[in-house]
Amino acid sequence: MTFSKIKIGSLVLFGGIFFLFAFKSNDNIQGKTFTKVKSNHEELGKVTWERDFAKGLAQSKAENKPVFLLFQEVPGCSTCRNYGNNVLSHPQIVEAIETLFIPVAIFNNKKGKDAQVLKMYNEPSWNNPVVRIVDADKKNIVNRVSGNYSALGIVHAMVFALQKEEKEIPTYLNLLKQSLEAEISGTETATFSMYCFWTGEKKLGSVDGVLETQPGFMNGQEVVEVKYNPVLISYENLVEEAKEAKCASHVYTENQTQTSAAQKVVGKNSASEKSRFRLDKEPKYYLSKSVYRFVPMTQLQATKVNVKIGNRQSPDEYLSPRQLELLSFIKKSPKKKWKSAINVDLMKAWDEIEKKKA
User: Which long-range contacts (CB under 8 A, 24 or more apart) does 238-242 make?
Assistant: First the structure.
């Protein structure tokens, strides 16, 4: 995908996004032309789908990619619409489906070829969304995703399928999986005072299990508020990491359990109850001073990117190919007056930047 404007017949391609809903691909694989659809049906989200299963299987074989097979009711109920508008419209999920798999959509409330595929897999008609990931021989690679309408359900299925096929899992997809897993299992917050919260974000953001850092002020002190996954790192171990990094001159705690754990590490005089937190005007300082600040990211990505830039290293390993292409486009278009995407929801920021590109 390149960020240029190309006209193909009556279709305009701008920035790698098709602004009409249907097109015929010029890709000729084994003598066959594939018809792909970017639908205006909200149940299908923002993924460009192949609608012919046989053609999808041929493309799967030619490109050595698994088929991402969606059984969806179109038009559908609120569950189907929400699935399309949220899960199937998440920019990184869309990218993974379109680039790592061959996406094929089967309408489970239609006759003809759609009904034949439903019968092949013994899927019920007029049903809520079901996802299968299959190989070019139609065999399931992982268990079907049914009754799980979360983003994590799809991401887990994609990651497990790639592992099963012994394919590389992109870093951005792994980071997304970590973020979604933490949301499901539950996150906790720790707050540390140190001599400089720019340094604090850089050092604490590099700790495994830390999902997000925010710089600010508490009791007149510079602090960093850390969101972390307690499944991956305990509060006491996090305090130990902060102390070792010289980022725990004082620890502000949220409950008695945290207070007891913090006092064991930093002493009674260096731990006290948390008060009102005030966010600094320049969160993710190192990121905020770079062109990367305009690229929509998850909070975990932004945290990791901020660390890399703060250490004068390239952060590109944490970004997806489409994020890197967007970065390139932004660099070449400084007159667009891009807005910072720091602390902005990824889906919202991505939609806004697509509008600005157009």
Answer: 238/190, 238/207, 238/209, 238/210, 239/190, 239/192, 239/265, 239/266, 240/265, 241/204, 241/207, 242/190, 242/192, 242/194, 242/204
Question: Where does the pLDDT of residue 29 fall: very low under 50, low under 70, confident under 90, or very high at 90 and above?
Answer: very low
Q: With contact defined as beta carbons under 8 Å apart, do 50 and 62 qualify? A: no
Angle at which helices 256-266 and 235-244 cross, to 10° = 30
Instruction: List pLDDT tens digits, range 278-318.
Output: 999 999 999 999 999 999 999 999 999 999 999 999 999 99
Mean per-residue pLDDT of the chain: 90
CA 65 to chain centre: 21
Q: Say what percent of the chain tops pLDDT 90.
A: 86
pTM value is: 0.88
Per-residue pLDDT band at 38 (split at 50, 70, 90)? low
Q: Are strands 250-253 and 271-273 parallel, antiparallel or unpaired?
A: parallel
Which strands form 145-146's sheet, in the order they lie side by side?
A: 22-29, 32-37, 49-50, 102-107, 67-72, 130-134, 145-146
Longest Cα–Cα distance of the chain, Å, equals 75
Burial 119-129 (b: 16+ CB within 10 A, else e): eeeebeeebbb
Mean pLDDT computed over 232-238: 98
